[in-house]
Each structure stands twice: as structure tokens, then as C-alpha cells.
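Key idea: predict the complex, not the pieces.
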Amino acid sequence: MKTLRVKILAALLLTLCLTGVCGAAEKKILRYGAINQKSTLDMQVNTYSRVMDIADMIVEPLLRIDEENRILPVLVREMPRSSEDGLVYSFSLKPDIKFHDGTTLKASDVKYSFERMFRPSTEALMSYICDMIIGAQDMLEGRAESLSGFKIIDDQNFEITLSYPYAPFLGSIATSYAGIYPEKACGEAGKDWGLSVYIGTGPFKVTNLDIDNGVFTERFEDYHGENQPLDGIDFIFIEDPNTRRMEYERGNIDIMMLDATMYPEYASSKLASEIGSYTPLGLIFINPNMSDERLGNAKIREAISLAIDRRTIAQDLMKGTAIEARTFLLPGMLGYDDKAPVFERNVERAKELLTEAGYPDGVETESYIRSTNMNTMLGRILLAVQNQVKEAGIDIKIVQVDSAAMTEMRNGGKVPLEIFDWYADFPDPDGFIYSMLYSSNAATLTSNYKSAEFDKLLDDARAATDPAKRAELYKEADRLATRVDFAAIPLFHEKSYYLAKPYVRNFKMVYNDVYHFHGVDLDLDAKNR
Amino acid sequence: MSDTVRKDSAPLSGLTGEQEPKFPEQVDGSSRKSGGFLADSAERLFENRLVVASAVVLLVLSILAVFAPLLAPYDPAGQVLSDSLQGPRANHLLGTDEMGRDILSRIIYGTRISLSVGIVSQLIACVIGVLLGSIAGFYGGLTDTVISRSIEIFSAFPELLFAIGIMFVLGPGVINVFIALGLLSWTSYARLVRGQVMQLREMEYTQACIVCGGSNARIIVRHLLPNCFSTIIVLVTLGIPGAILTEASLSYIGLGVQPPTASWGQMISTAQQYISFYPFYSIAPGVAIIITVLAFNIFGDGLRDALDPRLRV
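Result:
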């Protein structure tokens, strides 16, 4: 009898162990259904929000902007002090910050990261964010090897001197583009940086960077900041949005973007309570290529703008998940013109403009789109626009291309017309309109907009410190780009959606449409219930 | 001379000729009247009810394709955004898609793409395949080795992957789909025609023609290829459904026909995301593909049986 009892007890104990009661605790791994942009993670050479989702958890800039749009110190002890004239910023690094490879962060790593951004061989796309640092222009033009405006005082302290007082400087260096890389590891990795090696000071370190299948991370135990509740984040690439949704419904991923096309269906399904929404600082617009033979003519660009019925698209296609855009700048942003009229549709005027431009029988152009975007809201909007402008005699041929080809064509300025969604790099007009339309940036984002007048307005706005003066300059630049030159054809400000399982805790979206997982936790009890 | 040879050539494959009618009668005791090879084949073809049904389906599809603008109730690209994703009802028999377009009209117009892709691509493949196959089979030697190795190289690639590769190089669009699918399927024509020409070349009537000084081109075109005709017809008919499916796959991944042109593959691709909410939207173009492919397959099988002399006994 005693033996039997012992046996029963042993069996019970075994069962308990197997069910995990006395076994190792289940790891808290967040599985994010990510989109593969077929791009390096190196944020100096790409601009994708979906890459930032991953990169921002691994590499950190000196400062960061939280979900309340506040700038917070990350790698520095406190917010940097600036000199009275706004030209010199003094930084003091937190002591003993470790990179994932065990090396310690020093001022020289910060200098290296900035210099790398300005070195022509890097081909950085967003060096505009801090090219007002003295010496940056010399480096960008290949005249200097080091950044003269960056002074290392000791391993912890350094100063950055600007060539003019740039009001949003701290915001601009709080973006993903200004992430700090370890000098030694990054230099050694060379072209592999971001493709197979990516090391930073962030809360999660890469365990497997598989450019085809995903990026798999685990908590960095020596992280300098607050301990993260998650044991790791799996960024699982699922290219097809439908497969992604099915994986979510099957419980194989915990969180994912939900395209607005599917919002009405999901909002009336059993998953309605798992939908989260946010309004990113972003704009959907048409980006015409000014170097194109036909689209180079402002009258044709204006005709396209006039032939679009934004209201119908917003109401009937987007089912109220978007509002019509009146300007390039975003509502609430410095320089936003709240008195700007809506863009009214006028097909007759569009036809007249085509005739004036020398195309009385209509004009043909091509719009390239990522094939994976064709079934998203961007693709739907493009189809609606294609249908509407046809009435005015504008024939837009849609060509679907794969992600890698699109990136190459866009960076080379070779896409004739593209429907674009653009989000603020930091909550300042400079991080939104300058980054897209200033001539040097427009060249790598396909619009090839080159207007001395527009560039001058933005240069002046950068150098101005008085907010009212800056607002005026940005307002004027916006009007010039969207109502005179039609360098960008604003369409909508869209609301965005995501699906998150109820056991995902503390998740909040930030302003620029990037998914950040600082402080996110998983309630395993709720998950396994 | 040529007429004599042709007459001679007929009994070789047992296809036509004056002796032939008696033969089947003797064997199966049927009272089939001979009306020559074609009439005989047609009679055999239409004996099978399934084949007749598939022929009717193909006829209907062809009428739909040719008269699409008259038959489709709506413009296939005409959007009524406020009317999107509606189920089947009186004014839209198959409902509307995500852009408020009539699904029935898009399926009718999709017939044009599917049939034209199927037929044109197979004609391209047929021209390339028959040309190279007959040259390889007739001349033999080094020519045959080079062509045969090319056939092997081309058929070594996985079909869809090869099509995707070609489309990447050529870029998307319906003309390029024709070319890609043509380049994809010529090998099966070449291989069969080569074999058959090799066999026919050794026949006495061919030898006689050579002795009498007939030029090579004339022998191939006038005396060898007519005897491969039934094989080619069957291959074309059976190749079409494959091409339709490949076009649907290419359009599904965005490499085929570009929007707003309606293509069944593209419709399925778009409908897929709504499958749990509006299943009918996915089912409709899917059924269209199934019916078309099945009809071509059944008809092709029937045609092969009817034209194959070995199955006559």
C-alpha cells in the first residue's frame, strides 16, 4: 500500500514538473509579426519605419522621444546643456554603458557614429538631421575626414558645435538615424553592418539576424537603463499581410500592424477588443518625379491634384479612417496652416491645364508600387486615384515591383510617380518637410524637387530660433511646395491600427508610426488561460 | 510527287487511307462509316458526352471573351466606392469587390486575359518547339545534340520559378506573360516533335522523297509535320490550362496583368484577405479558373483519344 502511495506521489510530482509548475519558468518572448523591407538594419542608410521597429530596440541614440513626444536622455546623464547663443551643446555620457559585445561606450564611439553618417562612402540618407554640426558639410563633400565641430573632452564628455543655432537639434539627434554604434565592431563589420551584425546599447541584443526570416533578440542583461520585463522579442518576417493576420488569429504572433483596409471588418468581428488605434504624425501623398519628362511640368502635376476627389476616397473607401490633407505639414505641427482650403476636385480645370501643358488628348504616366502594398490601403488609394484622374485624361499605369527593386529605384530617383506615406522623424516641421522635400533629400526619395526658393525658406527656418518666425517660414514653404510647385500632392492623414493580444501589457505607439517595446510585458497567466 | 508521298504516308501512322475503314469494322464489329481521318476523329470525339460538355463550356467561354463588352453588365474598372464589398444581389449577381466594382463583369473580362494568355502563349511555345524539334529530329548529329541539350536545360528549371525569373527581367504586363509562358513551355513541343520526326524520317516515303531530290525544308513542312499535327493539337489543348494557371499564379504575386485590368489570379489575390468575411468573393474567380482549366483538360484528353490511332482498335 505504501509503495502504491509513493508511486502515486511520484507520478503527481512528475506531472506537475511536466506541466511547468516546478520546471523552468516560461520565457516572456514577444512575437511581433514584422514586415520585411529587404533592407539593412543600419538606420543611416534606410528610412523605413518597419526597420526602425527592430533597429530601435537594438541601437540607441543619445536621446529618444517617448510616446508623449517628450525628449528623454538615454545614453547621457541629463538633457544636454546648450550655450547661450544656442551653438554649443555639452553632453555627458552615463558611466559604464555597455555595448552588446561587452565593450564600454565612449565619446569616441559617438564621434565615430556621427562621422560615419557624414562620410560619403556610407551613402547615408538622412544626414540632414544634423548636418548643421560644424564640419559636417566638409565631410559630406569629401573635403574632411573628421568632424571638426565634435570635440571630445574625455571618455565621458564631449561638445558639439553647430554652424547656426538650430532649434530642433535635440529632437533631430533623438531619431533612429542618429543611433550610436560601437566604433570597433561597426568598423570591422564593414558592409555586413546591419545585414549580419548589428550591435548597440539597446535593451535587446540580436541572437539571430536572418534577413529572410526575421530578427530574433534576447534581453541584454547589462542594459544601462531600466530592466525590461520581456526576455526577448522575435521580429518574425511575414511578408503577406493575410498570412500575418492568420498567424495572429492562430496565436503564433502577439502583435502586428492591421492595415486600415481591414479595419471595418475586424471592428465588427470577435477581435474588435484587440484592435488598438493611433494617429501617427504622417501624411499619405503623391510623390511625382520632377525629373520625369511629363511630370516635370507643374501644370500636369496640378492637373493630377485637381482630378482627385479626396473627400469620396476618405469617406467611402477609407470609411472615415482618414481626413483630407490640406497641407504637407501636419495638424498641430509648427507652421501648420489651419486656414488652408481643402483641395477641391475640378476635372474641367484639370483638362484645361493638360491642354496648356501641350497634352490636349490626355497624358500617360507610370506609378510604381511594392507588390506587397497593392492589397493595402496605399494600393487601394492608388487604384481609386487612377480611376478618378482618368476622367481628366490622365492615364496612370500601375506597375507592381518587389521590395528590393523598389528601394533601389526610389533611392536612385527613378520612380515616375509614387503613392507615399511619410512620417515625422521628430515632431518638428524640419523632421517632416525638410526630410522629404529639401533638394538633397528629394533626390534620394525620387521626387527630385529642386527649388532654390523652397530650399532657402527651409534654410532660413532652420537657422531661425523664434518659433513664430519659423512657423511663418514653414507655412510659406508648404504653400510653395503643395499649391504652386505641386512637388507633393497631399491626400490624407490616416489613422493607423494594430492588433495586440489581450495579454500584451503596457504597449503604446509613438508619434512616428514606429513600434517601440520599452516596458512592454506579457501576462503569461492570461496567455495560458 | 508530293501527293503520292502524302497518300503513302497516311497508312504509316494508320490515320487515313482507303484500307482503313474496313479494319475497325472487322475488329470491333461496329458499323462506323468512314468519312476520312478528320470526320472519323470528330465522330469519336463527340461520342464522349463529357467531351461534348467541355466543348460547350469552351464555346461559351470564347463567346464571353469575344463579346465581353456586350455581355458584361458593368464596366469592369468602374468603381462605386460607397458600394464596396456587397454580397450577391439582384443588380450585382456576384456582388461587388473592395473598390465597388461588379465581380461578374470582372470575371467576364477576366476570361479574355485567361484565354488569350492560354492560347497565345501556347502558340508561341508551339512555333518555337515545332521549329526546333523538327530541325533536331530531321538533321540529327550535332544539331540534335545542341537543341536537345537546350531542351534539357530549359526544362531543368522549376516551371513557376522560371516564369517568375523571366517576369523579373521583362517586367510585369500581359505581353510579357505571353512571352514568359511561351519560353516556359516550348520544350515539351520540341521534345515530342523531335521524337516523331526522327521516327518518320526513317519511313520509306520520306526516303523516297529524299531520293527524288525533295529539299529538306519541303520534306519537313510538307511530309513530316502534317503527320505530327495531331500530337501538336493535343499538346496545345493540354498546355492551355497549365498556362492559365501559371498566369493566375503570376498575377496573384503581382507579376502578371497589372491593375485595374481584371484577371482571375489577381482577383483571388485581392479577395484572399476578405476570405473569412466575404467568402463568395474568393470563390467566384476560383470557380471560373476551375471550370476553364477542367474544360480544357477534358477536351484535350478527348482530343488525344480521338486522334490517337492506337486507341482506335
